[in-house]
């Protein structure tokens, strides 16, 4: 390890013993002793850090920094220790110093976490800069497509849909993980209820968690003392936290530290991991507690949630092969109580950050906490459709449930439109509180295409046009029609490619592809090309097909009759119409400006008309359907008559061609 003093000198601890010249023996011995003391402190801190004893590790690392020694490794670990204890302001200081002083040793995860701490502090501009640096480190990914302005706009769009209340059973300790339990609630708390704080968790120096019970959701006038511990054999001297009750209320799944035969179970590094357990309701109590086969001593499995039918479990885990620090997984609960294959929920849900605390409501919405999706800082709450996760997008629930601190463990009763969540907002960010909520505005998790359908030539709004959504397998999955205002709105597949096709009798169909629609409305207007041109012929004023097709004017350069590249594009449209309607015959009329004598201009205009006819004929149109006529300067469109001073642009307006239908 390389330690750096606050002076400009950098020393290897081994190298200190090899310095002999230029320093007297007394000064060398003092520096050696300081370095040796720092090394011992760092080794002790590392041991505690590696065993997830973050709170004592923080104390030791800080002592090393206060003595003037610093390294990239110390800043990384101290930043992480603060980050995982939700002390984001202090984590920000460590990560910022790491990025500034050790840019070459800063890893992608540290840019990411520093960005999260910036959001917590309200510095969204700096957060966006750090996320760009993070993207470069990992060579970018799909979760970095939005700018700060775009994702803040999306968050604000979903904000203001909940009203929050107070939870009278909160204590001055951490209270979180509410779970519906019979007619009441369960929740986790580390409140000290008589154990004299003999058991404290070294991660955050708090008491170990137990499950507590509230008998009735209608009684929210209680106090902390009126929430007793859950009876039975579930609570132990280690952590018990997140829980979920089965549909028949006979099985309770919950999270607990690795506990084997009443003793702590550890992995190969001596770390006590989290595991999932279940208890059966027997003899009016929770008994027959067993560890689930989903667990391992080598990684954590925690925070269970059940599908509405109770046949699938969603949970969080840091098992190998995931996308980030912790991912969400699912498994089937079979009829005999065994479990099926464990399946990762995929990159729509999981990110390089933390996805955790899942909950599935009765109307099949998956809620979860994440610091990897776009948020306001720390863990934010998100939602998506559980029934078709791969084809859905993830939406941030917005303020007020989300804020700059950690917001998590959200549960929701879709029938009553009420719920609960936990947050460490407030003056004491080290402790969590539970907040009840009422949903005032329904959450729409769908993606839509929305827009107008018009006649391309006249811009007339088209009522009754058919709008179809076609998936990437070329299957029509939804159909609607435009209303009397020519407006349509149709649901898309979120998180997947969609073709939108618009058709109407007497018009050519139009189609566009939407690669990855956002939640809410995606605006697409369609201008349909008429298949049949209806013209009321007036012998005195023939119809100009160029105007009917809304062509850009075909101009010629001064004194030239070459077909310009920009004119070719427009003439090709004339060719396409004549190919579609074989009986159509056109007179090409060419005009010049007033510069030059009249005879010359008449000759030049005829050359231009002939050049245009020749170009159309070369595209396969029969010459007997075309007539070329030059009119010189006989029909000037503006004030630029002979001897009238005009700009080059004004003169160019008169050098034009018309395409008049004569049969």
Q: Keyphrases for this structure?
A:
663 residues, alpha+beta, Serine Threonine Protein Phosphatase 5, Tetratricopeptide repeat, Neuraminidase, Immunoglobulin-like, 4 domains, 4-stranded antiparallel β-sheet, flagellum
Give a short synopsis of this structure:
The chain is of the alpha+beta class and about 675 residues long.
Write the layout of secondary structure elements.
Blueprint: E1 2-4, E2 10-12, H1 13-16, H2 25-50, H3 54-66, H4 72-84, H5 88-101, H6 108-120, H7 124-137, H8 148-158, E3 162-164, E4 175-181, E5 184-189, E6 200-201, E7 206-207, E8 210-214, E9 240-245, E10 251-257, E11 259-260, E12 263-264, E13 274-282, E14 285-291, E15 301-306, E16 312-317, E17 327-332, E18 343-344, E19 355-360, E20 365-370, E21 380-385, E22 395-396, E23 407-413, E24 418-423, E25 433-439, E26 447-455, E27 466-470, E28 476-481, E29 487-492, E30 498-503, E31 510-514, E32 520-523, E33 526-528, H9 545-548, H10 565-580, E34 586-590, H11 598-618, E35 626-630, H12 648-652, E36 657-661
Parallel strand pairs: 26-32, 26-33, 34-35
Antiparallel strand pairs: 1-2, 3-25, 4-5, 5-8, 6-7, 9-10, 10-13, 11-12, 13-14, 15-16, 16-17, 17-18, 19-20, 20-21, 21-22, 23-24, 24-25, 26-29, 27-28, 27-30, 30-31, 34-36
Helix pairs in contact: 2-3, 3-4, 4-5, 5-6, 6-7
